[in-house]
Recover the amino acids of this structure.
């Protein structure tokens, strides 16, 4: 709401009068070079669009709070969890993953779920999705995977053939693809979906004991999804419906809430657990590691300016605070580099000085200069450490315990070597034991509809290869997908024999 009159000025604060008329030689003459306000307006306009995120380009966000409801201090010394009732301010950004900034909110796509906790020990960024797993398990494959979700370099159109070719050649993706092809791939709104840290992280307690941990945000609004046909209809009716829904719900003071729960694995269990606990394509079954409640997150403030706070929000899983740390999860290890690097490219090296990214507590370091440095830049203080002029010190109480390595051999190891190549058991459990009959039917229909879009001279090769995977997951699933695609069962079985590694 605007209540105070403000004098119109240039970016340098200089008042000016002519905002709508350019200076010309006569009413119809050419424009003069000296009309600086024209230059300022045009050049700023040319630069209003910063590079969009390569992934998670379209999203929405809100501020809120996290409140501790249960004691988990036996697992972590992180101050934000130090006592029941403690509150921590948060900013959350939801997003679609593969589409551009102008894409529809109802696309079949994973949804980003990123939370920034503003803690007294610095900002903790927990970046994940609305799914507990991902398509790949090694970061070297990430750019290849994302290229298949973007536009065909020849047609500049989305290509089902590219997507299914990649997935069929990488069976590690099956678990995530099955979730994506269920109605969970088209959430009704951002409020009606769960969120997951997805990666395995670690907790460290005040005894320097380490625990492996996974984070789950359970929506208190309940899970609601579009059916495929309704999601397609919404693309044309309101491509921004999820953005609008969050703004309107908070405007009505219907503040969305999530319960934060964790799974905790003792450090020693990782050596003997039946699946690699650091494999992002796998879950930890709840019967093995039950969910433990931690607290409640509530979103209650929509930013006054979308660009300032949502578009410029920058998350990095490298940002962990004392009591929370990393794991050998290969995908997490890769994102420790790629996320802050992407933010420095997109927003500049000083992106953490932008208000939404800025730690609200004291920050002391020796970073200086760089694009868009907007604070005092360290003033006249020394820009090196150690020095004889300031009193900045290293606090040894924040030192983490060492992480035990299981090997002294450095090499390029096959991510799917023996013992790491079970891509079918967990998707099979999901289909047979977790999905009800209605969900199974919807998933099959969605898979058929998606695979029908495969075209080109490799169509049958890609379809048969992917059918082999569906049969490996579950025979009923494979049979129904083959039937929906009009593929003779004998032909599908022949395809299975043609790929003995899948038999």
């Amino acid at each position: 709401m605007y209540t105070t009159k403000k004098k119109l000025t240039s970016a340098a604060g200089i008042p000016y009068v002519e905002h709508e008329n350019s200076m010309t030689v006569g009413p119809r003459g050419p424009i003069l070079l000296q009309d600086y306000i024209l230059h300022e307006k045009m050049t700023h306009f040319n630069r209003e669009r910063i590079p969009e995120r390569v992934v998670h380009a379209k999203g929405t966000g809100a501020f809120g709070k996290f409140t501790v409801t249960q004691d988990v201090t036996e697992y972590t010394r992180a101050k934000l969890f130090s006592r029941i009732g403690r509150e921590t301010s948060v900013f959350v950004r939801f997003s679609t993953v593969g589409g551009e900034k102008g894409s529809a909110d109802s696309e079949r796509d994973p949804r980003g779920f990123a939370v920034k906790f503003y803690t007294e020990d610095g900002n903790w960024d927990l970046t994940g999705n609305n799914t507990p797993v991902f398509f790949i398990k090694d970061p070297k494959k990430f750019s290849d995977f994302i290229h298949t979700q973007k536009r065909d370099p020849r047609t500049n159109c989305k290509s089902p053939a590219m997507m299914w070719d990649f997935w069929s050649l990488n069976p590690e993706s099956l678990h995530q693809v099955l979730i994506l092809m269920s109605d969970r791939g088209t959430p009704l709104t951002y409020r009606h979906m769960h969120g997951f840290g997805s990666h395995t992280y670690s907790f460290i307690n005040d005894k320097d004991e380490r625990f492996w941990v996974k984070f789950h945000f359970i929506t208190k609004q309940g899970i609601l999804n579009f059916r495929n046909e309704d999601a397609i209809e919404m693309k044309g009716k309101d491509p921004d419906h999820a953005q609008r829904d969050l703004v309107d719900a908070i405007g009505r003071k219907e503040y969305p809430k999530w319960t934060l729960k964790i799974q905790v694995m003792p450090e020693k269990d990782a050596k003997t657990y039946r699946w690699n606990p650091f494999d992002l394509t796998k879950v930890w079954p709840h019967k093995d590691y039950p969910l433990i409640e931690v607290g409640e997150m509530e979103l209650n403030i929509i930013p006054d300016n979308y660009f300032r706070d949502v578009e410029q929000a920058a998350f990095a899983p490298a940002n962990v605070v004392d009591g929370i740390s990393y794991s050998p999860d290969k995908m997490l290890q890769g994102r420790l580099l790629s996320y802050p690097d992407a933010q420095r490219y997109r927003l500049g090296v000083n992106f953490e000085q932008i208000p939404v990214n800025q730690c609200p507590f004291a920050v002391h370091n020796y970073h200086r200069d760089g694009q868009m440095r907007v604070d005092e830049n360290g003033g006249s203080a020394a820009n090196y450490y150690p020095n004889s002029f300031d009193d900045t010190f290293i606090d040894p109480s924040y030192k983490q315990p060492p992480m035990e390595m299981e090997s002294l051999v450095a090499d390029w190891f096959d991510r799917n070597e023996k013992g790491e190549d079970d891509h079918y058991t967990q998707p099979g459990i999901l289909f047979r034991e977790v999905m009800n009959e209605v969900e199974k039917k919807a998933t099959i229909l969605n898979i058929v509809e998606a695979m029908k879009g495969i075209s080109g001279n490799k169509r049958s090769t890609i379809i048969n290869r992917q059918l082999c995977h569906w049969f490996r997951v579950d025979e009923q699933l494979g049979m129904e997908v083959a039937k929906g695609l009009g593929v003779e069962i004998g032909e599908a079985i022949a395809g299975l024999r043609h790929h003995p590694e899948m038999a």
